[in-house]
Every structure is written in structure tokens, then in C-alpha cells.
Design brief:
Lambda Exonuclease, Chain A, four-stranded mixed β-sheet, alpha+beta, five-stranded mixed β-sheet, globular, 42% helix
């Protein structure tokens, strides 16, 4: 990619969103996310995330600073290593899932900007189609160890036991991120793929798009957050928010 392509947004206009075709993880990709509600943080924004010593609760102002590129998101050495593993592992998992599991090509996706409210943005790890040729998304997680709850769910499937709603056992921040991306990009649903490359274990499940959660919880709560904490910061710090 040329220097010009790295600095100038390349837009693909779709029915419900506009997508930047610039490479994920690049500097322009990061800039396009500034000042907007990011799908990866919407669960925390809506106060639906589990907190722990490793992931302490942040104030709304701290989250707003991160969204505007002002606050530095601090990570422990262990978390930084895990994120590095994710960056390396994502394309490996994407290729495996494409060739071995769904046997369909998966395309990478840049930042998707929602046409209805351009301050809402998401980056899918991939997109493909289902058997009915309907658009679906892919969300990939590459942890150091597969959560035991996913193993238990798979075992219950094998015994034909009833499962709880996926929102009850998939990490809330993962579920909310997926549903935000699906609603913004108008996807029928998405595959949630969790793969640990160190021990060769994986969990995946197809999830229907949860429009009720989006319309009744995620969007309205995040909209209030953006109006209350992010917009004033954009004006105060004169943040350059990129629009199509």
C-alpha cells in the first residue's frame, strides 16, 4: 500500500454503513476510530463488562479520553503479550476457519461507520455469507487458554442438553462487540470463534443478530454516553473526527 493510500481513506459505500478499505491496525485505521463509539468498548460504556483486578473499572471520563485518543490505555505485560498473540494468531485462525470449517472465503473488513449515526463504528474480523447467501460476520479471539465454560457448553451440546442464551456464557464484552458490528454492518448474524493456538483447542458458535439488545440497550445507552462525555471532549480538544 502506498503512503497516499495509508493517509487517505478509501471508502466503500453500503446500505447501512460506509466502510474504510484501509488496512486494519494502521495509523489511518486508528484515526478513523477517534471520537466515536467503538464496538470493542461498547460493553464497558454501557456498564455491562465484568471487572477484576486485571481489568479494573474505569470512569466514564477515562473511557471518553481513550475514545478520543487522549488517554493512554494501560496494559500489563501479560495483557500486552496476549494482544500480540492475538495479532499474530488472527489471520491463522481466519484461514483455518475459512478452509476447514465453513469452506467459504472470509474477507477482512476495515472500520464500518453507521450511516444512521456516524459516531458509531465497528471493525469486524471478517465477513462471509451463509448457505442462503446472506451476509454474516466473523469475530475472532485468540486467548492463551480456552475458557472452561466453552468446553462445558460443547459437552452439553454433545449430550443434547438445553443451553442457556449465548449472552449468558459468552463474555459480555465479546457478545456486545459482535452485536454492535452486526447491526452497524447489517449482518444476519456472525460466527464467534475462540481459538487457543498453544494447545490446539477451539470453540465456535453462530449467533443471530440481536436487534433487541442493540435497539433497547446498547445504542441508547452508548448514545447518552457519547453526548455526555465524548462530544464535549471533541469540542474542547478540537479532535478531528473523520467522516466519509
Amino acid at each position: 500500500m502506498s503512503k497516499e493510500e495509508e493517509e487517505i481513506p478509501i471508502w466503500n459505500f453500503r446500505e447501512t454503513c460506509t466502510i474504510s478499505l484501509n488496512k486494519q491496525g494502521g495509523e489511518l485505521w486508528k484515526k478513523i476510530r477517534l471520537g466515536a463509539i467503538q464496538a470493542s468498548l461498547i460493553s464497558e460504556i454501557c456498564d455491562r463488562t465484568y471487572h477484576s483486578e486485571a481489568f479494573p473499572k474505569r470512569t466514564p471520563q477515562e473511557i471518553a479520553n481513550i475514545l478520543c485518543g487522549i488517554g493512554v490505555q494501560a496494559f500489563t505485560p501479560t495483557q500486552e503479550l496476549a494482544m500480540a498473540d492475538g495479532v499474530i494468531g488472527e489471520p491463522i485462525v481466519r484461514e483455518w476457519f475459512s478452509k476447514e470449517i465453513i469452506k467459504k472465503p472470509i474477507n477482512e473488513v476495515g472500520v464500518a461507520i453507521w450511516k444512521k449515526d456516524p459516531y458509531f463504528r465497528a471493525s469486524l474480523d471478517g465477513e462471509t455469507v451463509n448457505e442462503e447467501n446472506e451476509d454474516i460476520g466473523i469475530e475472532i479471539k485468540v486467548p492463551g487458554k480456552l475458557a472452561a465454560k466453552y468446553i462445558h457448553i460443547v459437552q452439553s451440546w454433545g449430550k443434547s442438553l438445553n443451553n442457556p442464551h449465548p449472552e449468558s456464557y459468552i463474555f459480555p464484552n465479546h457478545y456486545d462487540q459482535i452485536m454492535t458490528g452486526c447491526n452497524i454492518t447489517n449482518k444476519k448474524g456472525a460466527y464467534y470463534v475462540v481459538a487457543c493456538l498453544k494447545d490446539g483447542t477451539a470453540f465456535y458458535q453462530y449467533l443471530e443478530t440481536d436487534t433487541q439488545l442493540w435497539n433497547e440497550v446498547l445504542y441508547p445507552k452508548a448514545k447518552i454516553f457519547h453526548n455526555t462525555y465524548v462530544l464535549p471532549l471533541i469540542k474542547e480538544k478540537q479532535i478531528d473526527v473523520i467522516f466519509p
